[in-house]
Amino acid sequence: MPALPPPAPLSGSPARLRRVRTAMEELGAQLDPAERLGQDPLAFARAWADPADQEAAAVLCSGLSYGRVAAFWPVLRTLMGRAAERGGPAAWLHAFDRDDARVVEGLRYRFMEGADIATWCGALGAALRQHGRLGALVEAGHRPEHADVGPALDHLVTTLRALALAESHRQGRGRATRFSELPAGLRYFLPRPADGSACKRWCMALRWLVRRPGDPRRVDGLDLGLWALPPAKLVVPLDTHVARLSWFLGLTDRRDGSWRTAQEITAGLARLDPADPLRFDFALAHLGISGRCTVRATADPAVPPPREICQACPLGPACRVGAPTLRASAPRRRAPTG
Ligand code: SF4
Question: What is the pLDDT of residues 130-158, one digit of tens each?
C-alpha cells in the first residue's frame, strides 16, 4: 500500500471536542451492557472462560458477523454448539477433521457456502497448530514505529491466506494455486488493509482481543484484552452505522468504506482519548444497531430530520444534523418589554 500522509483528525475548537466527548460519554452511560451484548457477537467469545477458547471464538465468529444480527446469530450459535461438543472452540479448531467439516458444510450464510466456512475453520486450526495462538501472528507483525495495527493485520491475514489455500487442498476443494482463485465466500474472510479494505470484522476482533477488560457494567468494559498490542494503535471497525454516525459527528468528511476512512475516523476518536481511541466504539455501533437514529447517511443537513428523534439522542448537541434541528426547535427567548 503506498504511504499516505497522516489522516486529518477531528478538527475544531477545544469546546467542540468537549461537546463530542460529553455526548459519547452520555451515549455510553445510557446503554445497558447486558442488553446490548444480547445483540453483539462479542457475547459468543465472552461465553467461554478459557482465554484460548475466547480467542478462537472471537476470530471465528467475527468473520461471520456482517449483515443483520438476526441473520448471522443462528450460524454462530450452531458453530459454538459444535465447538462445545468437541471440548471448546480452541480444541475443536486445533483438531478440525473431516467429520467436523461435514457438520459445518451444512451451514450457509449469505454468499458464504458451508465449504467456505469449513475451510476457514480448518485454516484457523492449522494456524493454532503452527503458532500456538492466533495472537502470536498479530504480535509478530507489529513494530513500535507502526502508526496503527494495519501492518500487523496484514501479517496475520497474509499468513492465514496461505493456510486457507493449503486447507482447501487438504479438504479436497479444487486446485487453486493462488489465493485469488479461491471461492469468493472464502476470500471474504480474509481482507487486508494493504488492499484498501476497512477490514471491519478484523478490526472488531482486534478491539475485542486487544482492549483491556474493565468494569462489565459499562459498555466500554466488555472487551477481552488477550493480545499484546497497544490499544492506542487500534483502528475503528467501520460498518455502515459507524461510518454514518462518524460523519454526523464530524469525525470525517469521507463517504467511502475504506481503510483510509477508518484511519481518519480513528484519528478523530484519538483526540477524545489518545490512549484508547476505540473506547466509544461499542456505544457508537450500538446506537446504529438499535435503530434509535434512523437518519440516513445521505441526509442533507439543510433538511432537518424529525425533531423527536434527535431530541431523544445523546449525540444531539454534537451532531451536525441533530444540533441544527434542536436549535431550530428550541423555544425563542421573548424580548423584554416595557
Ligand atoms: S442527533 Fe439525530 S441525526 Fe444525530 S445521531 Fe442522533 S438521532 Fe441521528
Answer: 999 999 999 999 999 999 999 999 999 99
Pocket test for ligand 1, best of 242, 313, 325 (most atoms within 8 A of CB): 313
Ligand 1: distance of its center to the CA of 217 in Å? 25
Ligand 1: centre distance to CA 321 (Å):
7
Pairwise CA distance, residues 69 & 73, whole Å: 6
- Ligand 1 centre distance from Cα of residue 238 (Å): 18
Rounded distance between C-alpha atoms, residue 79 and residue 204, angstroms: 19
Angle between helices 14-30 and 281-289 (to 10 degrees): 60
What is the residue extent of each domain of the chain? 1-30+250-329, 33-235
pLDDT at residue 332, as a whole number: 59
Report residues whose beta carbon is within 6 angstroms of any ligand 1 atom: 245, 248, 293, 295, 305, 309-310, 313, 315-316, 319, 321-322
Compute the distance from residue 267 Cα to the ligand 1 centre, in Å: 21
For cell 480452541, what's the residue? Answer: 90
Protein residue whose Cα sits closest to atom 8 of ligand 1: 293
Q: Chunked in runs of 10, what are the mean pLDDT values of the chain (338 residues)?
A: 46 83 95 95 98 98 96 97 97 95 94 97 98 97 97 98 97 93 98 97 98 95 97 97 93 92 95 95 94 78 77 92 80 55
Classify the C-alpha dihedral 140-145-150-154 as positive or negative. negative
In whole angstroms, what is the distance from residue 245 CA to residue 16 CA?
A: 16
pLDDT in tens, 267-315: 999 999 999 999 999 999 999 998 889 887 666 666 777 788 899 999 9
Cβ contact 262:269 at 8 Å: no
